[in-house]
Fold:
Amino acid sequence: MVGRSVVTLDDLSTTEILDLLDKAHYIDGHRRQVAHTCDGRVLATLFYEPSTRTRLSFETAMLRLGGKVIGFAGAQLSSVTKGESISDTLKTVSNYVDVVAIRHPKEGAALVARQAASVPVINAGDGGHMHPTQTLADLATLRSRFGRITDLTIGLCGDLTFGRTVHSLIEALCRFGNVRFVLISPDELACPQYVLDRIEATPTCSYVETRDLAGAIGGLDVLYMTRVQKERFFNEDDYLRLRDTYILDEAKMALAKPDMAVLHPLPRVNEIAVEVDDDPRAAYFEQVRNGMLMRMALESSVVGDTLPGYESNEPRKVRV
Ligand code: NCD
Structure:
């Protein structure tokens, strides 16, 4: 994985993804031992779009590995305002750092960044396209809840058109196979065709589309809720009309299996009532923790720093 950029999880083999899951698990149990893994390394976070969790998570990950962090949060403080291209920014920043995490409102920006950079680039979200490190957090959460990331019925609910976390998660789960997707959205926010094509091209995966969360929830092992992506709408009225289509509350949770897991990449707006937070099936704050651990695993791997004491050929203790 050394030197590798991650624009989508297709940039990693399934073995590498499983190794990252194992590494994150190891890191969690060996915080002190790994605290100097990336001594002397520098991460740049180039965030052209708002973020709380993702940027702080990338940065905390590097700091907890002993490295340092530079970057900007908000393009208004960078040379973008002077008209600098992404390529030029990346060619510049490559001279300063060992790894870059970039978030940008335009689909494809991370690919452009990777082509220009001479250090690994990690996509921290490119428009409505992909968000691979959120998916790593999601996979870690599935594995910790179920002991596996296959043989699951997964409902994805909300903004499936613009929700990049949904697109990345489906892409990754199709790599491992044996997942039934239940795509729950209003017609206007349905999953893009290229994502459906991916499921159709996977013999062991299938999908159904529905508008009815209450009708579907009882059959789900996982419910992945998403926010309606206000910033990607062309028209405020459409956003206002669609934003509260789904609200997961105690009444709906009463229809779900006793061990269903509720995931959400956060931030939440209204789509999960706060009362659900105390339900043991709510896994979304666990997901945040897993996000940091997975970014620690990924950052140390792409810069080529070995976690002290970690044997990557260890027999896997947990089934896929
Ligand atoms: C997500 C994103 O930015 O796509 N947030 C995150 O990174 N955890 C989801 C969202 O903004 O709705």
Notes: Strands lie at 42-47, 68-73, 99-104, 121-126, 152-157, 179-184, 206-210, 222-225, 261-263. The CA atoms of residues 5 and 11 lie 7 Å apart. The first strand starts at residue 42 and ends at 47.
